[in-house]
Amino acid sequence: MDLIGVCQGFVAGASRLVPKLRGREFTESQLALVTRQVEKARVTADWIETAVSTGRVEPG
Description:
mainly alpha; single chain; flat; 2 helices
């Protein structure tokens, strides 16, 4: 249940925040940082999916 809550919290937070980015310009360094963090989120989501479907909990 904790895992479901974490996922729901992430989705809810993103749903509130992303629309506020309309018209916002990012510096090159900000864009690079956001890109790295989104990739970490994507890898973590894949890890969660693998752990749930296979029982393997080792990262990557």
